[in-house]
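Holo prediction. Input below; ligand is S-adenosylmethionine.
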Amino acid sequence: MGKDKLKRFSQILTFGNVIQPKINFHSNDDDLKGNWSTVFNNENPLVLELGCGAGEYTIALAKDYPNKNFIGIDIKGARIWKGAKAALDQGLNNVRFLRTKVDFITKFFGENEVNEIWLTFSDPQPKKPKKRLSSKLFTDRYQEFLKINGVIHLKTDSDLLYDFTLEEIKSNNFKLLENITNVYKESYEKSQELKKTLFIKTFYEKKWLDLEKTIKYLAFSIH
Ligand SMILES: C[S@@+](CC[C@H](N)C(=O)[O-])C[C@H]1O[C@@H](n2cnc3c(N)ncnc32)[C@H](O)[C@@H]1O
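Structure of the complex:
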């Protein structure tokens, strides 16, 4: 492992906006479940970005919505470092990063604690459908802590993940709220706010746009 990476791994432990469980990335020593309002010191709505990478969505949304709290979640320390450092440098008090696997997510959030979930350019997992972050295995987990009218947003370049998620929405009778097959060709007559939100570009999105991939978006609720 490179020296820089090791340095970043030890540095994130000193960042006030990063939570890194001490044992195997899933011990809940800080008793966070159900207690995020204490962490943020307010009762504002809570938004998660799962597989956040360097947290571009988390940071951009946190700037646009100072009255919501945002948590970027990823297992990769070097990526979390980038997002957390940027949030600290920009003085964003409504941002935290949690280093864990999404697989352990129910350990960290209590019933009705979360308002929205963003899945941004999640791995399509071509050979392992259960590992897709929009699979029933995962939506069952989200159901444990997402509010009744909570929204899941999925933004992807992957036809496989988009089609799979749409099928999951139908077969589980989830409520489809938005279905945009080309984010950058949509007219957005109804909502300039949605346009602004969907035009935020992550590291991976920029890569896929350079390759002229079409970016798709779904929003749905699962209760
Ligand atoms: C393709 S990258 C996308 C990163 C970022 N959202 C973006 O758009 O630039 C997928 C990210 O999800 C993370 N990831 C994938 N599966 C995960 C899991 N089960 N738990 C935590 N992180 C996961 C990876 O570490 C990686 O940073």
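The chain has one domain: 32-221. That is the main takeaway for now.
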